[in-house]
Design a protein that fits this description.
Layout (H helix, E strand, L loop, with lengths): L1 H47 L4 H36 L2 E2 L2 H9 L5 E2 L6 H26 L3 H6 L1
Antiparallel strand pairs: 1-2
Helix pairs in contact: 1-4, 2-4
């Protein structure tokens, strides 16, 4: 019975993580979508005066990588003090949950894991999401018609 509860809890954690990834991806994608919508005229002007679309794609890709990397670094730096604090000062479980933990022989604390592979893996997944969101502007630039872009 305990094994089934652990498996159920693990599956719930995976579903929650998938939902969070979904929300994060559409937050990133919404930002990219607005960036492209606001800059369509700029792209049209650049292509009209002679910039190659391949070069414009490279610039946008580099811009997206830099924005994504900066966001990841800021997020990791902002979360580090919280992780460090809760690693050295774990949450004490009180009341019925604390009593239940004591009854089964476990410490009534909820510690935070140190910076391990899980922490860094999240950054890699978000970077992959940024790369996936970058595909839309690249496709939009490929299909860009200068006259229509200049009118927008």
């Amino acid at each position: 019975m305990l094994v089934q509860q652990i498996q159920g809890d693990s599956q719930t954690g995976i579903a929650t993580l998938a939902m969070l990834y979904f929300i994060i991806f559409f937050g990133i994608f919404g930002t990219v979508l607005m960036m492209i919508a606001e800059r369509t005229r700029e792209f049209g002007v650049l292509v009209a005066i002679g910039m190659q679309k391949s070069r414009l794609k490279r610039i946008i890709t580099i811009e997206m990588i830099l924005l994504g990397s900066l966001g990841l670094i800021c997020g990791m730096l902002a979360s580090a003090p919280v992780i460090i604090y809760f690693y050295f000062h774990p949450i004490l479980l009180k009341g019925d949950i604390g009593k239940m933990m004591d009854d089964i022989g476990w410490d009534a604390v909820m510690p935070t894991a140190w910076f391990g592979p899980y922490f860094y893996w999240q950054a890699i997944v978000v970077l992959i999401m940024v790369m996936a969101a970058t595909l839309y502007p690249l496709r939009k630039i490929s299909k860009l018609k200068e006259i229509e872009a200049l009118r927008s």
